[in-house]
Write a structure and sequence with these properties.
Helix content: 10-25%
Strand content: 25-35%
Distance between the termini: 46 Å
Structural class: alpha+beta
Number of domains: 2
Number of helices: 3
Strand order of the largest sheet: 1-2-3-4
Length: about 170
């Protein structure tokens, strides 16, 4: 089993070849002492996780999307999976993708949206700098979401009275 010296080379290579696969990783330029070394990968990067696990074994603790790897245990807590706030329709907001949206399994696309206020009062969307969403089934249960690091600033977007729109681009 290889050690930190070869893992840091592989992390640099992966950062060049498939940067979108690496969600959370240690700085390859640091001198690591802690074991295991946690690496979070995008949900679609199971092949990369399998390669890392085969090469580095217990040296690495891997997460692929919301699951541990290779155990496939959900690591995201219940609070993270909850929808907070009212759904857009109930809040009097109309949210439309500016362009057609298609999401492949395991991917987290970023798209521009147009949000229109259909109420007779101003509303403020509180965000972390961008709107986040969850994929829900017909019963409203969360079945998909982005689970990586997110910016922390609290940014409010004001929506004027009825019919006023805002493009979050």
């Amino acid at each position: 089993m290889a050690g930190w010296e070869s893992l840091r080379v592989d992390l640099r290579r992966l950062h060049e070849e498939a940067p979108e696969a690496l969600v959370v990783l240690p700085d390859p330029d640091s001198e690591r002492r802690e074991r295991p070394i946690r690496i979070d990968l995008a949900a679609w990067a199971t092949d990369i996780a399998a390669e890392l696990k085969a090469e580095y074994g217990d040296l690495v603790e891997l997460r692929v999307g919301a699951m541990t790897f290779p155990a496939k245990q959900l690591w995201v807590n219940e609070y993270s999976r909850q929808l907070r706030g009212a759904p857009a329709e109930r809040a009097g907001l109309d949210v439309r993708a500016a362009t057609p949206l298609s999401v492949r399994t395991g991917r987290s696309p970023r798209k521009d949206v147009l949000v229109t206020n259909r109420t007779d009062h101003e509303q403020v969307l509180l965000t972390m700098g961008e709107l986040g969403s969850r994929v829900t089934d017909g019963s409203g249960n969360v079945v998909g979401m982005f689970v990586g690091p997110q910016p922390l600033p609290r940014v409010g977007f004001r929506l004027g009275l009825m019919g006023a729109g805002l493009c979050l681009c």
